[in-house]
Amino acid sequence: MSGLLASAITAAEKRRRLRVALESGRLQRFPGAFSPLVAKLTAEVGFDGVYVSGAVLSADLGLPDIGLTTLTEVCGRGAQIASATDLPTLIDADTGFGEPMNVARTVTLLEDAGLAGLHLEDQVNPKRCGHLDGKSVVDTAEMVKRLRAAVSARRDANLIVCARTDAAGVEGLPAAIERAKAYADAGADLIFTEALRTPTEFEQFRAAVDTPLLANMTEFGKSELLTARQLSDMGYNVVIYPVTTLRLAMHAVEAGLRDIISSGTQAGLVDRMQSRSRLYGLLRYADYNDFDSDIYNFAPQEARP
């Protein structure tokens, strides 16, 4: 039964493993998951962790990424995804959903929800997507207050508090580096610098900051898409692919729906679908049968999707 209905290991153990991984010298790869099912596939394929993007959560609710989602929505979806696998889950906590006291409550609830880490950003509230123009950032002292509130609120010392800075596109790279150092001094375990453009900028940031660093490899943004090998060689500790799975899925869904409208049937799409047996395998139907055949007592037909 272990690991069937939820993760086989505790949230505390996931946090411990993530903290050890940050100190391992090996790049940790965290694809974004927009559902627990995607998180299960992420684990099966062999990634190191799962990321929950605020932009993806907003989009999944049919909303733009402009700070409209609530703490309750983020905690709920984060808890579902975090419990789906044994991998650590890092979640986007935007600006912390309010003033420093709100940030402290955000950390408490996300810790209770089973997350291994969260990141807070230094944008003003309401925020906007980090790869859009026209962003504004709070002053360094205000962000330091957010981070100190976050660090003081965690009860598990292994919960990763990551500080994201959007200052590179607003104030320039040197200012972003200085902010990163101040955020590390305030207790941030990991620094996420948003919207660096070139390999040189990524290298300059790494050379200037001693704290573990996270790189955001999002498509259609300002950053050149670097390989895991490039980032590893530079000395980055974590890479996220925040919206990749949603973009892949939505492209396929749109193409399929348009095909059904034009042809009147989905028959021509079957070979592009995940089969019924593959889904059942991912969900471990057979293990449920072994656990209680009174609940589940049939086998999927391999010949049918």
From TrEMBL:
Alphabetized InterPro entries for the sequence: ICL/PEPM, Isocitrate_lyase_ph_CS, PrpB, Pyrv/PenolPyrv_kinase-like_dom, Pyrv_kinase-like_dom_sf
Keywords linked to the UniProt accession: Lyase, Magnesium, Metal-binding
Record field: transmembrane: none
Gene3D superfamilies, per the entry: Phosphoenolpyruvate-binding domains
GO biological process: propionate catabolic process, 2-methylcitrate cycle
EC annotation from Swiss-Prot or TrEMBL: 4.1.3.30
Co-factor(s): Mg(2+)
Name of the protein this chain belongs to: Methylisocitrate lyase
Lineage: Bacteria, Bacillati, Actinomycetota, Actinomycetes, Mycobacteriales
